[in-house]
Amino acid sequence: MTKETIFGLSLFPYLAFLWFATKSQQFPKLSLWGFYGTLIFVAITIPAGIYAQVQYNDVLANVDWLHGSAESFLTITNILLVLGFKSALENE
Question: Which top-level group of life is the source organism from (predicted)?
Answer without folding.
Answer: Bacteria
